[in-house]
Specification:
Blueprint: E1 22-27, E2 33-40, E3 43-50, H1 58-72, E4 82-88, E5 92-98, E6 102-104, H2 105-111, H3 116-135, E7 138-139, E8 148-151, E9 157-159, E10 166-167, H4 185-188, H5 195-206, H6 214-220, H7 232-240, H8 243-264, H9 295-313
Antiparallel strand pairs: 1-2, 2-3, 3-5, 4-5, 6-8, 7-10, 8-9
């Protein structure tokens, strides 16, 4: 038996010289950067450079350098890897990054090929990435579907574009920034910015995904940051609740509501016993209306029902 490994007979083996290979793959209309795909010793890489009209401009050169310094210190499978910072004669300063073979979440949503199972996977992976990011004191500030890549192989999340990101240690380019349709109010009005700004943007993204994320998205996107989830781990916990547990919680809520309603509207209809003739005692007038109306009793019943539901959801 011959079990030697080899290329199949119909495989096309080509000796292609990709030295100097460069392909423009992205240049946004409103942005200041463009992306090139290159070959680096048999591996595709991406170069992020300033557009010609912005090269040499101090503010944009600092933006590019800041993005490199933030990205270079991040090591997570869900974040586009940054390899180095260099200067190429006809391109100027550039960031060399990982090439991601995939599709943006924006394009995936528009294609209509995003089942609820994949939506849930994407939501969970996004939470894991943001949890890591926030642990490094980094706020992305421009979280949106077009800055999230989904790999063709494995359908995994890759967060990209840290051009507007900020860190606690950075002393430059602290001005509010982002994309208006996904930015938290404190980013657009110049308020204090922390991890809850990314939580707001995440809520906007969740509202576009298939699945039972509506309640979570609403809480993420509260106008007042104090009304949102306090951290990304809390969002993750809410997303990870098993579907069957949500069903059980719904049943418990329904049962509790029925019990409370029944107690509030219960009336004792037991017949009044007849008077005893020998003693000539007149029957005591007894009211048959025993509806519970004491507010403190009603509040206690609601509290017990709520505790019962919460104990089931936290298991």
């Amino acid at each position: 038996m011959n079990d030697d490994s080899a290329f199949f007979a119909n495989a096309r083996l080509e000796s292609t010289d990709l030295a100097g290979y460069r392909e423009l793959i992205h240049s946004s209309d409103g942005g200041w950067t463009e992306l090139y795909r290159i070959d680096r010793s048999g591996k595709f890489r991406v170069l992020k450079v300033l557009k010609p009209q912005y090269r040499g401009e101090p503010m944009y050169e600092m933006l590019l350098r800041k993005e490199f310094e933030i990205g270079y210190n991040l090591q997570h499978p869900g974040i586009c890897e940054v390899y180095g910072y260099s200067q190429i004669p006809d391109l100027g300063n550039c960031i060399e990054m990982e090439w991601i073979d995939g599709i943006t979440l924006s394009d995936l949503i528009q294609s209509g090929r995003l089942p609820s199972g994949l939506s849930r996977k994407i939501a969970i992976q996004l939470c894991d990435v943001l949890s890591y990011l926030h642990s490094k004191q980094v706020i992305h500030r421009d979280l949106k579907p077009s800055n999230i890549m989904i790999t063709h192989n494995g359908r995994n999340v890759k967060l990209i574009d840290f051009g507007l990101s900020d860190t606690d240690s950075s002393s430059i380019l602290k001005s509010p920034a982002g994309t208006a349709s996904f930015a938290a109010p404190q980013l657009t009005n110049g308020g204090d910015v922390d991890a809850r700004a990314d939580i707001y943007s995440l809520g906007k993204i969740l509202s576009l995904l298939k699945g039972s994320f509506a309640r979570i998205a609403r809480k993420c996107t509260k106008i007042n940051p104090d009304d949102r989830y306090p951290d990304i781990e809390s969002v993750s916990d809410a997303i990870r609740v098993k579907p069957w547990l949500k069903t059980v919680s719904f049943i418990l809520v329904t049962i509790a509501a029925v019990i409370v309603w029944g107690l509030m509207n219960y009336t004792d209809n037991t017949p009044i016993p007849p008077a005893i003739p020998e003693t000539k005692v007149q029957p005591t007038e007894i009211s048959t209306d025993t509806t519970i109306s004491d507010p403190s009793v009603i509040d206690e019943l609601f509290r017990q029902a709520t505790d019962m539901v919460n104990s089931g959801s936290n298991r």
